[in-house]
Amino acid sequence: MSATIPAKDRGQAGETFETAESGASGDGLPRAVSHAEQPDAAARELRERLGDTALELVVVFCAPSYDRIALAAALADRFGTVPIIGCTTAGEIGPGGYTTGAVVAVGFPAEDFSIVTALVDHVDRFEIADSTEIAQTLLSARDRAMTARPVPLGETARSFAMLLIDGLAMSEETVVSALHNALIDIPLFGASAGDDLHFERTFVLHDGAFHPNAAVVALFTTTRPFTVFRTQHFVSSDRKMVVTGADPQHRIVTEINAEPAGREYARLVGLEGEPLTPMIFAAHPVVVRVGGQYHVRSIQKVNDDESLTFFCAIDEGIVLTVAEGVDPVANFDGLINSIEAEVGAPDLILGCDCILRRLEMEQRQLNAVMSERLARHRVVGFCAYGEQVNGMHVNQTFTGVAIGGR
């Protein structure tokens, strides 16, 4: 495990870019999307569309179909000394809402943000003690950066953290819990990188390269109002199941109620004998009660032996409850109302949306409606293999940070 801080001198303003089409800083914080197939063309479009604002950091979410080496090099070339972080996705959220096969970028102006980042290698070997070193490195770098700023952000500046992590290393619970504890009172959100439901390899982007089996932690400090949030559109039912056989290391459940897991799950959701697909798992998740609240434990896939692989940690003896959905659009509208009550109309919502939520939107033909909502409220982000909020790794949720105006 290692933690590194980019070499950029945070006391200097970032590069300035050309003003271009929608997504420039005149319309909230700068954000952009490119569907260009060639990495250099995509990087050029993003550079142009983020406008002429001096940037402290660029966050990029890219479809796994891109040549990662070429894309990382093209982004580094186009953005120069401005640090870039990001990850691969299972779908993107651009300025126009849901999209696929694209690269999405959001810029954080140097005038309003001081940001430091760390790369965490070998997350499959992450230990709780590592979090102290990472947190201390980030906090010390933040304090130095704040002291060196030509115009200090001031005493009202607050910090939040973002975690982007390999979505297949099965290390999210350990990493997010330890980091949240080490960062003490700093709110944290994040998500697990995806690869368009291939479940083969996922990557995070840091310091000009895509890294497997790794995570990126970014610590943002700003005087702008912000709120870290989480929402899910599921409630518990009266249908219970007990995990009676499991392989916790691989997040596999072999038995539920002493029956083959896949078969018993299908019976409990009323689909006995039906093939279990991602669409089924999206529509019929299970939840577990933790700390007085229900959290979704989504199923990734059914295996040949009728066992079930989950997106979250699982173990024998856990009581799972079949969840029932509520209106996802009304749930999103309620989230926006609470955000606006806290920070006003957001200039940006940096959002992490579970891929199973998006599959459900497609299944229920709500994609266009939700895309309109996402675009209207300036949401950019990606579809993930799991989401993090403070010390929890969760599924089938929408997490992120909403940032208000000055």
Automatic annotation (TrEMBL):
Location of the FIST C-domain domain: 261-391
Species whose genome carries this gene: Azospirillum picis
Region (Disordered): 1-32
Protein name (database record): FIST domain containing protein
Domain of life: Bacteria
Pfam families in UniProt: FIST, FIST_C
Domain FIST: 53-260
